[in-house]
Amino acid sequence: MSGVGFRCDAGVRSGVGHLVRCVALAEELCARGVPVVFLGEVRGSDWALAQLGARGLPLVPAPGQPARLAGLARELRLDAVVLDSYELPDGTGAALRRVVPRVLAIVDGDPLGQEADLYLDQNLGAERRPFPRPAPRLAGARYVLLRDSVRRRRRVRRAGPAGPGEGAVPRVLCFFGGTDSAGVAPTWAAALRATGAAFEATVVSPEPFEAGGPITVIPPTDRLPDLMAEADLVVTAAGSAVWELLYLGVPTALSWVADNQLVGYEELVGRGVAAGLGRVTDAGAGARAVGVLARLLTDPAAREEHGRRGRGLVDGRGRERVADALLRSGPS
């Protein structure tokens, strides 16, 4: 194979989830000796740009027009292109299919009109939901894409007076993607304080703010997998990081900050895999959300039940299955 191109962007408005899951698949392809190149832009996130640089993954600006993008794919002699964006012009997939042998579209339910030879929807329960395209689809948690930095981690639990986690002050990690595009981190930090419970929290935010109390605010960091593995509770949105938390078996309380996250939020909360906090309103986090957080902080058994239900749903081999399917252009 001459190479695989990843058409995705990252930035303050679009977040970094698309890039992170593409990086995971790129790591797998590189390990198999397949050259990869990223086609797109990274704006306003030094952390996201560093993910490519640290792995030696080249980034080439991508033209917006489908025909010109297809021309770039032809010029680079790509054998496959992976599409992962909600904002691609109509006809992008169709244009690429005329010049490259394989197009894989990573979607979250709706393919948004894009044509592809193969689709990937890694969301929990996706295999049970109807899909409007006749092309082969890899669907469900069996195909979750995880980075090496997560696959190498195992959860770390402290021993309290009555056993692991029992009686210890819970460690909380709060983050909302690499850019917190909705700006909700301060609201959830305030909700944690409003519980009145004992905890120690790390809040990841690209914009510094004064949280007060037992809360430390840090910028986006490569240590996030370590922080997840060490946490007793994670407060986050129903984005791509959820699959990493399921793999690690970390108890999670979920919000949702974008409409496309709602289907995943409802599936995860409905199964009891995560606790549901709802969506931040203009008034901030509601009393019900504060109550949910208070219960999780003060009841280790209830907290750990969520982690137990999630553990095992993601086995860490999803990217291998996707790479197998992409390289032979068929489902596994």
Give the topology, please.
Blueprint: E1 4-7, E2 10-11, H1 17-31, E3 36-39, E4 42-43, H2 46-55, E5 59-60, H3 66-75, E6 80-83, H4 92-97, E7 102-106, E8 118-121, E9 137-139, H5 148-151, E10 159-160, E11 163-164, E12 171-174, H6 185-194, E13 200-204, E14 215-218, H7 224-230, E15 233-237, H8 241-248, E16 252-255, H9 262-270, E17 275-278, H10 287-298, H11 300-310, H12 318-328
Parallel strand pairs: 1-3, 1-6, 2-4, 3-5, 6-7, 7-8, 8-9, 12-13, 12-15, 13-14, 15-16, 16-17
Antiparallel strand pairs: 10-11
Sheet with most strands: strand arrangement? 5-3-1-6-7-8-9
Domain module tally: 2
CATH architecture term of the largest domain: 3-Layer(aba) Sandwich
| Largest sheet data | 7 strands, parallel
The tally of strands reads 17
Shape: elongated
Class of the largest domain, according to the CATH hierarchy?
Alpha Beta
pLDDT < 50 runs, ≥5 residues: none
Overall average residue pLDDT: 91
User: Using only CA atoms, what is the Rg?
Assistant: 20 Å
Characterize the quaternary organization of these chains: single chain
- End-to-end separation: 19 Å
Structural class: alpha/beta
Tally the helices.
12
Order of helices and strands: EEHEEHEHEHEEEHEEEHEEHEHEHEHHH
Helix content: 25-40%
How much β-strand is present in the residues? Answer: 15-25%
CATH domain fold name of the largest domain: Rossmann fold
* CATH homologous superfamily classification of the largest domain: Glycogen Phosphorylase B
